[in-house]
Amino acid sequence: MTYEDYERAVRSLLTEKRFYHSQCVAKTAEALARRYGADPEKARLAGILHDVMKDTAPEEQLKITEKFGIMLQKRESPVPPPWHAAAGAAYLYGVLGVRDTEILRAVECHTWGKKDMTLLEQVLFVADYISDDRDYPGIEIMREAAARSLEEAIVKGVAWTLNDLANQGKPIDPDSVLAYDDALNRLRAGRKLTFRPGPYGIPAIEIEEGEAP
Ligand SMILES: [Fe+2]
Ligand SMILES: [Fe+2]
After folding, report:
1. 210: CA distance to ligand 1 center in Å?
2. Secondary structure of residue 191 in the 3-state scheme
């Protein structure tokens, strides 16, 4: 299937708004891939595909996950299913015949993140926060962070998300915490980081190169 074939398949399953979001994520993921050295074509494809199941009824998502989820890595979470990311990866594998494991994995972890994300996984994860259609307080801070480094964007994005979930009394998936710790370690490598509370619940981070042991 060509990119256009996948795009058509996705369009038939999504609302107009979500389809536009997917197009925007595809564009941003491609740009981030070019900037940070991931495969731009794979990033674009992962972007258009990532929310394929998001507008599908919960019961249907669960059925698809059970039927085609044989290659899924994530089986447990304190956050109750359905999980559109897992259902999406299962649908791509079982129905659309996607066999590119890198793309399937990137779709599977795009909501919560995880430990040791590949470059492509990080690119999709960050693209979903900063695509052109996104408009939330603090979006400019997130876009500036993503222009500096993927790890800074992940640290800030996940910090914001965890804060938001905690403020709403919602459960937090441990994979998000691992994604945060991981990105923080990479951001810290060889640098001195100074954190302070920033606007919109996004931490402000001062980064000094070559200061830390
Ligand atoms: Fe999503
Ligand atoms: Fe999304």
Report:
1. 36
2. strand
- Judged by its nearest atom, the ligand closest to the C-alpha of residue 109 is 1
Task: Output b/e per residue, 88-114; b: 16+ Cβ within 10 A.
Answer: bbbbbbbeeebeeebbbbbbbbbbbbb
Q: What is the pTM of this model?
A: 0.97
* CB under 5 Å of ion ligand 2: residues: 51, 128
CA 61 to chain centre: 19
What whole-number percentage of the chain has pLDDT above 90?
A: 96
- Cα(102) to ligand 2 centroid in Å equals 17
Residue 146 burial (10 A CB sphere; 0-12, 13-18, 19+): buried
For residue 131, the CA-to-ligand 2 centroid distance in Å is: 9
User: For residue 200, what pLDDT is reported?
Assistant: 92
pLDDT in tens, 186-195: 999 999 999 9
C-beta separation of 55 from 15 below 8 A: yes
DSSP string of 127-188, one letter each residue: HHHH-TT---TTHHHHHHHHHH-HHHHHHHHHHHHHHHHHHTT----HHHHHHHHHHHHHHH
83 CA distance to ligand 1 centroid (A)?
9
Could you tell me the domains of the chain? 3-209 (1.10.3210.10)
Q: What single-letter DSSP state applies at residue 198?
A: -
